[in-house]
Write a structure and sequence with these properties.
The chain is an alpha/beta fold and 286 residues long. The protein has twelve helices and nine strands. The chain has a seven-stranded parallel β-sheet, sandwiched between helices. A two-stranded parallel sheet has the order 7-9. The longest helix is centred in the C-terminal third of the chain and has 15 residues. It binds NADP nicotinamide-adenine-dinucleotide phosphate (NAP).
Length: 286
């Protein structure tokens, strides 16, 4: 096995799905993990140590790599950490970087993704920027507990609509970009095919699961107090509050055709997600 693809973020949402897909397709890949033993146990995955905060890990991780799937871990905001990685990628002759960016990154001057995109452009390495909207899977990660325990979605997004995207669709596009030609030097705005309010998301959960789930729509203050009581650091609470404020004022509802065009089918809907992920929320029959 001589993998030429390196996948970062394999213990996370998108990287984890990419790892599964590559494995299903029997494509050997290097699975970038911070700690040995981390990441999924998969036949076609070869673990390699990789930590953005430890540049010494870059050369061994990139050895033999032609295509790199790169994410910006949520805790790393400063783009300076990507400089030595890009330098090493150039030195080792990496041919293509697929970077998980953010919908609208090209115009949002304050987001780290924009600054990282700029650095990738400056490196002159061939790139693909995947710019997705808000992940549907945030519901079973960030909001799992409140939905499972309190049977409510507790976000301050008012009646604002969000064009939820399923990370399994992002992974499918990423795998194509990592294994096929024709994706070089392109950026894609990836969204689901409908924009829903959280009221509508709760209604779909209620309908699919037969369990009443409500949408609480707290004030910003109530939302921050809730997360403070759960021990989340203030800076992370503020980032979340900013994201839901964006949704509330209507900036998260953009629907684009890129994903459907790339997949050649409709993106996975929120209803499909709710069906597929029921056991994550309610593992035992009620
Ligand atoms: N959530 C959304 O709705 C949304 C929408 C658009 C864009 N995005 C962007 O997507 C990215 C996050 O992707 P995701 O949700 O797939 O990831 P994730 O689930 O948040 O997981 C983060 C990954 O980064 C790894 N990581 C953390 N620190 C690291 C370091 N120092 N060096 C190397 N790897 C490290 C983690 O590994 P460990 O297991 O070792 O911690 C984990 O695999 C962010 O840039 C976010 O802004 C998110």
């Amino acid at each position: 096995m001589n993998p030429s693809v390196l996948v970062t973020g394999v213990t996370g949402n998108v990287g984890g799905e990419i790892a599964k897909l590559l494995n299903e397709k029997r494509i050997p890949f290097k699975s970038a993990v911070r700690s040995t033993g981390g990441g999924p146990e998969l036949e076609y995955a070869q673990r390699t140590e990789f930590d953005l905060l430890r540049p010494a890990t870059f050369a061994p991780a990139l050895a033999g790599v032609e295509r790199l799937f790169l994410i910006r871990p949520p805790a790393i905001a400063d783009p300076k950490y990507f400089e030595p990685l890009l330098e090493e990628a150039r030195r080792q002759g990496v041919k293509h970087i697929v970077f998980l960016s953010l919908l609208g990154a090209q115009t949002l001057f304050f987001v780290p993704h924009r600054k990282i995109e700029k650095r990738i452009l400056k490196s002159a390495l061939p790139y693909t920027f995947l710019r997705p909207s808000f992940f549907t899977q945030n519901l079973n990660t960030t909001h799992l507990e409140e939905i499972r325990e309190d049977r409510r979605i507790y976000v301050p997004a008012g009646k604002g609509r969000t064009s939820f995207i399923d990370v399994r669709d992002i992974a499918e596009v990423a795998v194509r970009a990592l294994t096929e030609n024709g994706f070089e030097n392109r950026a894609y705005d990836l969204t689901g095919s409908e924009a829903l309010t959280y009221e509508e998301v709760a209604a779909r959960m209620t309908e699919e699961w037969g369990i009443p789930i409500s949408y609480a729509n707290p004030s910003m203050g109530e939302f921050k107090a809730y997360w403070h009581s759960r021990g989340l650091p203030a800076d992370q609470i503020n980032v979340m509050a900013g994201i839901y404020l964006t949704a509330k004022i209507g900036f998260a509802k953009k629907v684009t055709p890129d994903l459907e065009r790339l997949l050649g089918r409709k993106p996975l809907s929120v209803s499909q997600y709710v069906r597929d992920y029921r056991a994550e929320f309610f593992p035992e029959p009620l």
